C-alpha cells in the first residue's frame, strides 16, 4: 500500500435488513427511485437508512423490466417500528413514481412484515391482492394505474456500521479516493454504502443528546490548534472522510472493506487508513484492518 494502515479495528453492530427489488418501465424512473429512497441515512436519529446494492437488467428482475436492489436497514428487531418507518420511505419515495412494482428479495429471513396496513391501505380500502409468479402482490389503485407491492417482505439479520477512514492531504484525494472505494465496494453482493463519502464522522458521547450524535471533534482538522493535545489529527492530514458499509454477512463485510481500502492504493494524497471504534460500546463486531487486508 502507498499509505499507512493504522493498527486498529472498526466497530460494527447488528441490524435488521429488508431487501427488495424495485422495478419500473424505464431506467430514468429507477434512477430517481434509487436516489430518493436512499437519500437520508437516519439510523443515528432513530429512523431507517438504506442503500443501493446494485442495479438490475431486464433479464434479472421478476417482471423483465429495469430494476434495482435496495437494502433498508434498522438497528433494532422491533419489526412493528421498522414496518412503520419503512412505509414512509415506500409511500413518499417509491409509490409516487409511475408504473412501479416492489418484490421481496430476502435471503433466509428470520421473520416477515406484512405491507398491508401501512402501504397497501394507501388504496383507501379499494386495494386487492393478485398472484404474480407465485408471489402475493397487493395492487394499490392510483391515478396512474397501478402500484404493486409484495404482501410479505422478509427481515434479515445483518451488520451495520462497518467503516474505514481514509486520511487525506488534498480535496482531490477525498473525492477520487472515495469514488474509487465506492465503485470497488459495489462489486460485492450483499452490501450497500448508505452515506457514500461521509464528511461528518460522529461519536457516541455528545453534549447535545436531544439532536443525536454530534461531530467527532478530536478528528476535526479545523479544531487541531484549538484542541491542542486532545486533537488526534496527525501531521499532514487535512481531511478525514469515512466510508460506511452495511452487509448481510460477516464475509460480505470483510470483502467489501478489503476491496474498498485496496482501491485507494494508487490515489495520491492519501496518508493513512484508519477506522472508527468506541471500545465496544457501539457493537459486538470488530474488523481489524490489517487482518482484513491480510497484513497481520
Described by strand count, sense and barrel closure, the largest sheet is: 15 strands, mixed
- Outline type: elongated
CATH architecture of the largest domain: 2-Layer Sandwich
Report the total helices: 6
- Structure class: alpha+beta
Order of helices and strands: EEHEEHEEEEEEHEEHEHEEH
Name of the CATH first level of the largest domain? Alpha Beta
Oligomer kind: single chain
Mean pLDDT: 96
Low-confidence stretches: none
Beta strand %: 25-35%
CA radius of gyration is 20 Å
Number of domains: 2
First and last CA, distance: 14 Å
The residue fraction in helices comes out at: 10-25%
**What's the total count of β strands?**
15
Describe what this molecule looks like in 3D.
The chain is of the alpha+beta class. It has 2 domains: 4-12 and 160-293, Alpha-Beta Plaits, CATH 3.30.70.520; 14-156, 2-Layer Sandwich (Alpha-Beta Plaits). The protein is 22% helix and 31% strand. It has 6 helices and 15 strands. The chain has a 15-stranded mixed beta sheet that branches. A hairpin with a 6-residue loop joins β8 (135-140) and β9 (147-150). α3 (171-185) runs antiparallel to α5 (250-262). The model has no long low-confidence stretch (mean pLDDT 96). It comes from Methanosphaera cuniculi. Keywords: Acyltransferase, Hydrolase, Transferase. Its EC number is 2.3.1.101. Belongs to the FTR family.
Amino acid at each position: 500500500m502507498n499509505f499507512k494502515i493504522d493498527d486498529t479495528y472498526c466497530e460494527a453492530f447488528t441490524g435488521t435488513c429488508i431487501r427488495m427489488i424495485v422495478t419500473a418501465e424505464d431506467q430514468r424512473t429507477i434512477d430517481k427511485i434509487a436516489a430518493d429512497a436512499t437519500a437520508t441515512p437516519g439510523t443515528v436519529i432513530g429512523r431507517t437508512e438504506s442503500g443501493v446494492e446494485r442495479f438490475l437488467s431486464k433479464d434479472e428482475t421478476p417482471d423483465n423490466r429495469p430494476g434495482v436492489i435496495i437494502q433498508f436497514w434498522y438497528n433494532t428487531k422491533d419489526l412493528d417500528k421498522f414496518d412503520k418507518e419503512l412505509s414512509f420511505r415506500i409511500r413518499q419515495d417509491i409509490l409516487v413514481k409511475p408504473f412501479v412494482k416492489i418484490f421481496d428479495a430476502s435471503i433466509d429471513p428470520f421473520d416477515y412484515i406484512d405491507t398491508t396496513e401501512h402501504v397497501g391501505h394507501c388504496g383507501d380500502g379499494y386495494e386487492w391482492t393478485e398472484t404474480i409468479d407465485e408471489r402475493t402482490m397487493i395492487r394499490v389503485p392510483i391515478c396512474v394505474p397501478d402500484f404493486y407491492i409484495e404482501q410479505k417482505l422478509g427481515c434479515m439479520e445483518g451488520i451495520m456500521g462497518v467503516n474505514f477512514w481514509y486520511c487525506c492531504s488534498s480535496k482531490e484525494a477525498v473525492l477520487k479516493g472515495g469514488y474509487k472505494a465506492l465503485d470497488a465496494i459495489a462489486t460485492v453482493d450483499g452490501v450497500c454504502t448508505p452515506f457514500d463519502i461521509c464528511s461528518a464522522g460522529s461519536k457516541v458521547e455528545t453534549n447535545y443528546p436531544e439532536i443525536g450524535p454530534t461531530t467527532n471533534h478530536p478528528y476535526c482538522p479545523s479544531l487541531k490548534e484549538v484542541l491542542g493535545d486532545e486533537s488526534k489529527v496527525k501531521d499532514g492530514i487535512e481531511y478525514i472522510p469515512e466510508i460506511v458499509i452495511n452487509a448481510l454477512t460477516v464475509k460480505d463485510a470483510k470483502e467489501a472493506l478489503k476491496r474498498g481500502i485496496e482501491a485507494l492504493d494508487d490515489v495520491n494524497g492519501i496518508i493513512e487508513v484508519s477506522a472508527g471504534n468506541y471500545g465496544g460500546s457501539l457493537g459486538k463486531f470488530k474488523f481489524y484492518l490489517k487482518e482484513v487486508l491480510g497484513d497481520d
